[in-house]
Structure formats: C-alpha cells, structure tokens
Amino acid sequence: MALGSYTGKGARPVRNAPTRVLLHAIAILLAAAYLVPLAVVLLNSVRSAEEIAQTSMIGWPLAWAWGNYATAWSDFCIAQTCTGIQPYMLNSALVTVPATILSTLLGAVAGYAISLWRFPGHAWIFGLVTLGVFLPEQMRLIPWTIVLRDVGLSNTLTGLVAIHTIQGLSFTTLFCRNYYLSIPQDLIKAAKIDGAGFFRIFARIVLPLSPPILIVSTIWQFTGIWNEFLYGVTFTTGTQQPITAALIALTAAVADAPQYGVQSAAVVLAALPTLLVYLFGGRYFVRGLTAGAVK
Amino acid sequence: MRRIAEYVTIWVPLLLSAGHVVLFTAWTTWMSFTPSTLMPVSGWVGWRNYTAVLGTRNWSIAFDNLLLFGAGFVVLTALTGLGLAILLDQRIRGENVLRSVFLYPMAVSFVVTGTVWSWLLNPGMGVQKLVNGWGWTGFRFDWLIDRDMAIWTVVIAGIWQASGFAMALFLAGLRSVEGDLIKAAQIDGAGPIRLYTRVILPSLWPIAVAVFVILLQFAIKTFDLVRALTGGGPGLATQLPALVVYDFMFQRGHIGRGSAAAVLMLLTLLGVLLPYGAWKLYRQRRAARA
Amino acid sequence: MTSIHRRTVLAGTAALLGTAARAQGVKPRLTAISQWSAGSDGAAITALGKKFEERGGVWQHSPVPGFTTDMMNKLRAQIMAGDPPACSQLKGPEIAAWSKIAPTVDLSETVAAAGYEKVVSPDLARLHKPGGKWAALPLQVYRTNAVYLSKRAMDKAKADKIPVTWDDFNVLAEKMKAGGVANPIANGGTRPDDGQKFEAALVGISPAAYRAAIMNLDAKALNGPEIKAAFAQTRKIADWMDPNTAAQHFSTNLARFIAGDMGIMIQGGWAQGVLLNAGFKLDDFIIAPGPTNNGKPVFLLNADAFIFWQRKEPDLIAGQKLMAELVMDPAIQTMYSQITGSIPVRSDVDLSGPGWSDGQRETASTLKGAIAANQAVLSLAHNMAQENGMTAAMIDVITEFVKNSKITPEQATTRLAEAVEGAR
Predict the structure, then answer these.
(1) Contacts of C283 (CB under 8 A, 6+ apart)
(2) What mean pLDDT comes out for the span C281-289?
(3) C80 and C189: one domain?
(4) If we measure between CA atoms, which residue out of C141, C36, C111, C138 comes closest to residue C321?
(5) Pairing relation of β-strands C136-143 and C299-308?
(6) What is the dihedral of CA B53, B57, B58, B59, to 10 degrees?
(7) Residues C268 and C391 in one domain
(8) What fold does the segment set A1-295 form as a domain?
(9) Interface partners of B (3+ CB pairs, < 8 Å)?
(10) Which of B155-159, B181-185, C147-151, C354-358 has the lowest mean pLDDT?
C-alpha cells in the first residue's frame, strides 16, 4: 500500500465554473477581512505619534512618517540603550531557532515512538505529555524560576531554550503522533521484517512523509516562542531581552501616551522572521505527501 | 549500543516533558494549601485559599466565561479552519498567498493584535464608526462595551487569530488522505459532498482531535488577548481563569490563592477531558470485541 | 525556601563586612531594575544614571518593560535566585510587604545625615520606613486628582470659573452638556482610571472618611454615608463619560478633549506631559486642583520609589549609598521632575525657576496646603493606600460600578465593604 499514488493537489471535487467563481470570491473576501488588522498596523507604522494622538488610532496617514521604521530598527531607546529593536531581534533568534529545531525533532521522534512503536505505557506518557499543553504559562512561572536557579541557568538564554524545548515537546509530540497515526502499520511491519531498526525506519520511512506536520510544528513553535513575553522578560536581564520586551516597552509607558507609530513599525519588522517561516514552509506544505512518497 | 541510543532518544525528552507536567502540577497543588503570598512558603491553611477564590466575583464570572468562551471559540474556530482548508483544497488560484493570509495572525505578537482589535471593535473608532460614516447611522456594533456580549469580541479576535492554524492542520490532514480511497469513492460515483462527508472528513478524525486539543488549550490559556482587548472588562465581564490565576498570583501578591485558582482551572479541564477519555476507552474496547 | 533564607542571611552578614571595604575606595556600582523603559520615564531614569556615572559610578539599569507585575515577577525571580538587584522600583505598602521576604539595606543613617525626613510628608515617609527603618526612598510625587479643563469646552459652556467644590464641578459639567459638549468628562477606561474617579470623589467629599475607610479600612467608615455619596458622585461622572472608550488609555480621547467635544479630565499630573507630547499647547487647557467640599485643598499622593536590597559586594554597597544620596538630592529631584512632569518629594525645593510649569507650581503649593490641613492622603487607584491584593479587590467593585449603571451607590457600598472583608 503506497501513499504516493495520490497526487496531493486537493481532492478537487468541485468542477463547474460558476461554483468555482463563487469559491474564489469567498476566498478573496475572507482574505480581505483577515488582512484588516494588518492594514491598521501597516498604516499606523507610517503615522507619527502626534498624528495618531490628534486624530484616531485607525486612519489614513496625513503625512507619511517613513522615519518610524528607521527609529524602530536602530534608534529608539529602552532607558539608556538606544539601539532600536536590532539586538532584541538577535536575542529572540538565539532562543527561538534552537528551541524550535530541538523541540520539533525530538517531538517527531517521540510522536513516532508513541504512534508506531507502541512501547509499554505509551498511552500514559502520551496523556501526560499532552496535558502539558493545557498548563498556563502563569502557573509554570515560579516552578521554572526554581528549576533555573537549581540548575544554575537563571538569566541565561540557554535557560530559555531549555524551557521552550521542554514545554514545546507537549505540542510537537501531539502534532506528530496524531499525524503519524495515518501511516499504515503494515509499512512499519514490512520494514521491520526487512531488518530495519528504530532509527532506520524513522529516517527512511517516517521522516520523508513528515514535511507537512514538521512545517506545522515549526510554525507553531517558532511563532509561539518568538512572541512569548512572560518568560522572556522574567528570565533575562537588560540587553538579553527578547523582541517582545522591546515591543511592549513602546506602549506600556507609565507617564506617557503609548507610542503606536513607532511600535507598529517595530511590530512589522519583528513579524518578518515569522512571516518568512510561513513563506518558505508553505512550499513544502503544498507538496504534501507526494514528494516523499514511498514507492 | 543502538538500543541504549534508542532508549535515550525516546525516553529522555518524554520523561522531561511528562515529568515537568507532573511535578509542576503537584507543586502548584501543594502551594494551593499553603499561606504563600509574595513568595512560595510551606505551611498548611486547608481549604482557605479555595474558599477565598470561590468567594470572589472574579472567579465565578471567569468560570462562566470559560464555559461560554471555550465552547464558542473552539467550535467556531474549528469550523472556520475546516472551511478554509476545504476551500483551499479546491485548487484555488493563489493558494500560497491565501494560505499565508489566513495564517499570518499567528505570526504577530498577541499583545499587539489584541490592541488592534480593541480599536477595530471599539464603537467610537472602529467598525461601527466606519459604517456610521457610510451613512448607516443607526448601525450598532458595540459588543465591546456591552457586559453580556463583550466575551464574544474575544471569540471574534480568537477566531481570527487561531483559525489559520486550524486550517493548516486540516489541510495537512486533507492532503494525507489516501488517494486510493478517493479514487475508489469517485469510481463508485460519489459526488463532491458525499466524498467529503463519507470519505474525507472521517479520515481527518485524528487531526480533528489535535485541532480540538490545540483550540481548547488556547481557550484555557487565553490571556494576552483579553488583557489587550478588554482589560478583563467592562467591569469584570471578560475575566477568564488564566487572568484570575495571574491576577491573584502576581498582581495581588497571593501565590496560595493563585495556585488554588490554577488547580480549579485544571479540574474544570479534567471535567472535559475525562469524559472524552472514557468514551475513547469504551470505543476501543468495543472495537477490540468486534 | 530555606535555602533562600540561608543565602540571604549570609549575604546580610557579608554586607556588614563589606562596609569596611568601602573605605578602601572601590568604584561604586549599581544594579537596578524598573519598568521605566520609554518616553519621559525612560529619559528621566537615564538622566539619573548619567549623574550616577558623573559621580564615578557604574550604572547597570535593566528596564523590565510591561506592566508593574512583570517588573515584580522579575524581582521575585532575582530574589529567589539569591541575586536581588542593588535597588529596584517599588512603591507604597508593597515596600513593607516585600521587605519581609528579603533583607533590605537600612538607610536610616544616610537619611538622617541628609536631614531628609523633615522635608518629606509624614504619610509618605511612613511607607518607606517599614519597622521604623528607611528601606526605600521616594523619588517623585504625582497628584492623582488633578482636574484638566478644556478651554474650548469652557467656551461652549460660557464658563470661566474653576470649580472648587463637587457642586461647582457638577454645575460646570451640566453647563458643558447644555452648551453642546458631547461628553463633559474625558475619560480613559482602564482600572486605575475608574479608581481615580472614585477616589477623587471621596477625598473631595471627606478627606477624613477617605483616611478612615480607604487607608485604615475602618469597617464603620466603609459603610458610612460619605462612601455612598462618593459612589453617587462617581455615578454622575460615569454618566458624563463616553462609554465607547471601553478599556482604552486616556490618551485616546485627548484630541476630543482639546477640541471641546469632551470637557473635564480627572487625571494624574502626568497628563500634562502627555498632552504636550501629543502636540497640544498649554493654552488649550487649564490644570486645577481636585474638587474639595470643605474649601481646603485635598491632594491624592502617588510617589515612585526605589527599594534597596542587601548585597555583599563592596562596589554595590558603595553604589547604593551613592544612589541614596542622589535620590535625596534637591538638584537631582529637580532634574527628574522637570523631565517627567511630577513634583519633587522634598517640600523645600523652589519651583519658581524657569524649568517648572505653572501646573507643577500649583501642584506643589496645593500639596503644601493639603499637608497643612491634614488633607494629603494616599492614592488607592495607584497602589499607595493599600497592598496590591486589597487595592485590586476594591478596584474590582469600583470598576464594575463605573461600567454598570444598574448598580446603586448603596449596593456598591455594601460590595466594597464585603470585598475588603474578603481580601483582609
């Protein structure tokens, strides 16, 4: 039984022309609706703080304040550090990239072991791991503080990577396990008869089938960790802080009005890495299962 | 040697992950019986933290909201996501672009998107003002300031944010449906609707479970979005358990009560998950007998 | 948690030993955390850091952007890791609460040497010396019950008199309404915003009741007629507000306030800076003291402060001493307040110079008058009157009252008293 016989470009059951036009119209309308908040952010990113204060939070720029981008990127100050968001982007990358890769790969192996090897106790351990997705960050904050202190990783990016990897495993394991359930057991059995071991089957059979779910998992982890704020500000210090801290710094001022103009520009810049993950990941996604088909 | 490598690769990550869940939950439960305020301390106060939390309006409002919001958000987002996935699976032109458009809400910091929604849904500056400006002056869309409806504004923003991800999971599922099955059904003369309801959707079940779990955890953990969108208001109308937990633990400086709220929240969750687990077990047993 | 205690006790002992090292001339260093990251707050603390460096110190300030709770989470994590900052931003009764969980520096000697206690209002001083020992130093003072009048709204109401009592205030608001001002009150919709409306009402109706009910949590006062009257006044204010504001920051409505679509803003002293930064002019609005029914000035105090945590490193100990001296220095307080728009903590700073605005001068003189009349009290909405747990429980009641016109002042009074009992 081969998965590869399906061409993977959608079932394409709807064929008649008027319906197809209607479907496209719906898709475009929905897309437009989804884009409205982005449009607000983009427009604000080229409006000055004064203009926003004197008109409305939502509006067409009267004078195009392109300078917001330069300010956001390299100029604005968080207290005495006037570097814009650049260094914070790097900090976030240093946490997000390793934590995403580690948690996705380990989650794939774990999901594979649970779904296709069914070792004793797999249901229990999967249940507990899955329960992890429900624990709110707020509840885990103090326990993590204690753990970081005891292993000597307080105020380090390594500590943050470890936290996000361990917490992320809940999600990645869940994604991969449920996805791998659709791989026929016969395939694994046949490979075992041929003498292939745990890793060999994973590398030769499971991994080539995995791009869609690995992409989903990567998107989830990357965006989740990139946008995380609570641990980011609590477990780092000063110039180690992640990008979210820099974004918040622009609006949560105590004695000032929020700086929505520069913040919006910073938001756009800060969202570029996550958007790139989608664009590059998306291609594999379309290819679906056909590329890695097992003949 | 290879066996050891196998065991290490399988068990170390799983034990770390499952271990932190068990330990952190146990620790929080312990804390909920201690007099901890600004710092965790040992001691025993019995159920006092629980009675204190259960006695607040914050908790009772948050609990009602969780049921309403949880059900509304999970169901509507899953349906939206499934709809988008099926739509994109029709060989729509520009699928790449559309997929990115539906997914991007996940890419932008939640704190920021919550703020933008607080403008769009604000009757004084958002959608209502726009439509009123078009000449339809009687148009009202003021859920944000309506105590009874405000929680649904969180649902709207939540759907916008999470439906793309549900779509991605469903799309991955749709594209892993075995071609043979579809061909066989088509040869049998199944029309598009029957093809979906009889062949494709049933095979999406494991993915749908993953989607539900993801959306349920979203619902339970919704925090930044509410804080930015409604601030928990008007009044206390959009309180959710995650906000109450954070509020008691950190804002009000009462770790004991915050932990009690967290335990209550997890118990509520178990109230949903246990019946599901029992049902699954029942089905498995029946399948095994058959 | 025993390990923390042991560690901090060790640190305490070492701190005593460290005093000797200071004499040998180490370079003072200060690790500080605060939430002051941007805008005038960020500029002010950065200027303070420059002064610290000018005096030969090493300034290591780590801002924690976000809400105050985020900063406190950071502080907690640092204390738990046995590595508290040399000083951190903290205010009000939280100073006493936090000083119980980790040893603080006893600043009493330094404060005495500077003769500081004489020039700080007694209520404020009390907050910063838990157990009689100075552990924290206030840095700047804000008034939370300032009244901002829109000049254009005044024109529409054909009014030119600044309201003194709440009756005057209500008459003015009615006149504005009649004159075509859409919303006589320009409001924000956050919890502190709602809280400020109520506390301004109560302190104007009876400062004595405010002290008894809000600051001392006297059960009888909490059920007293003044509380009901304050809720009734808050209802009037709420009815004049724009409900569409939802949970927005007050700055959202500044343009409408200046244009005269909104009339009166009850805000903290910081609103002046926000207005000027938004490009509006001092001629566009009038700043006045909060309404007071007995004619004597009332002042709701809000003060930012630094708490000093015990460290054993000689350079940090030297840095703490230098920081304490700087914070108490009239020149430094002048510099700081001129950047943020607050007023100095010291009552002996001369505000006649060119760097001060009329609003700041009026604020300072109102404070003096209020202290003399024993009518300067601590703000509830800005966490000065009670610990955060109690404050939040009380604000819950107030914000629900403001956002729900079906709750009567009587019901709100009962709920407030119940909330206080529940949070005790």
Answers:
(1) C151
(2) 94
(3) no
(4) C111
(5) antiparallel
(6) 50
(7) yes
(8) MetI-like fold (1.10.3720)
(9) A, C
(10) B181-185
C11 pLDDT tier (thresholds 50, 70, 90): very low
Please check whether residue C401 lies inside any domain of the structure: yes
Q: Do C38 and A57 touch (CB under 8 A)?
A: no
Q: What is the mean pLDDT of chain C?
A: 92
C389 and C275 in a common domain: yes
Domain boundaries, chain A: 1-295
Report how many domains make up chain C.
Answer: 2
**N residues, chain B:** 290
Domain B32-289 has CATH 1.25.40.10: no
CA distance, residue C110 to nearest chain A CA (Å): 27
**Over the stretch A218-263, which tens digit does the pLDDT of each residue have?**
988 999 999 999 999 999 988 899 999 888 888 766 667 788 899 8
Q: Are residues C169 and C242 in the same domain?
A: yes
**Alpha-carbon distance C118 to C112, whole Å?**
9
pLDDT band at B193 (very low <50, low <70, confident <90, very high): confident
What is the DSSP pairing of strand C285-288 with strand C183-185?
Answer: unpaired
Among B48, B147, B252, most C C-beta atoms within 10 A, so best to mutate, is: B252
Q: Tell me the shortest Cα–Cα distance from B124 to chain C, in angstroms.
A: 5
Task: Enumerate the residues of chain A whose CB falls inside 8 A of the CB of residue B180.
Answer: 1, 5-6
CATH number for C395: 3.40.190.10
Please state the length of chain C.
424
| A146 in reach of chain C (CB within 8 A) | yes
Of C291, C321, C338, the residue nearest C147 (C-alpha)? C291
Residue A9: its pLDDT value, please? Answer: 47
User: Which residue in A119, A135, A244 is closest to B21 by CB distance?
Assistant: A135
Do residue B176 and residue A288 have CB atoms under 8 angstroms apart? Answer: yes
Arithmetic mean of pLDDT over chain B? 90
C66 within some domain? yes
Of chain C, the percentage scoring pLDDT greater than 70 comes to 94
Q: Distance between CA atoms of C30 and C12, rounded to whole angstroms? A: 17
Residue C188 lies in a domain: yes
Q: What confidence tens digit (pLDDT) does each residue in B202-235 have?
A: 888 888 888 998 899 899 999 989 998 999 989 9
Alpha-carbon distance C253 to nearest alpha carbon in chain A (angstroms): 8
Q: List the domain range (segments joined by +) for residue C105.
A: 2-140+303-340
Q: What is the average pLDDT across B40-57?
A: 95
* Ranges in chain A, pLDDT < 50: 1-11, 287-295
Q: Do A57 and C62 touch (CB under 8 A)?
A: no
**C-chain residue closest to A246, CA distance:** C65
Which residues fall within 8 angstroms of residue C251, CB to CB, at 6 or more apart?
A53, A257, A258, C188, C274, C278
- Name the residue facing B250 among C69, C387, C401 (closest C-beta): C69
Please check whether residue C348 lies inside any domain of the structure. Answer: no
* Chain B interface includes C97 (CB < 8 A): yes
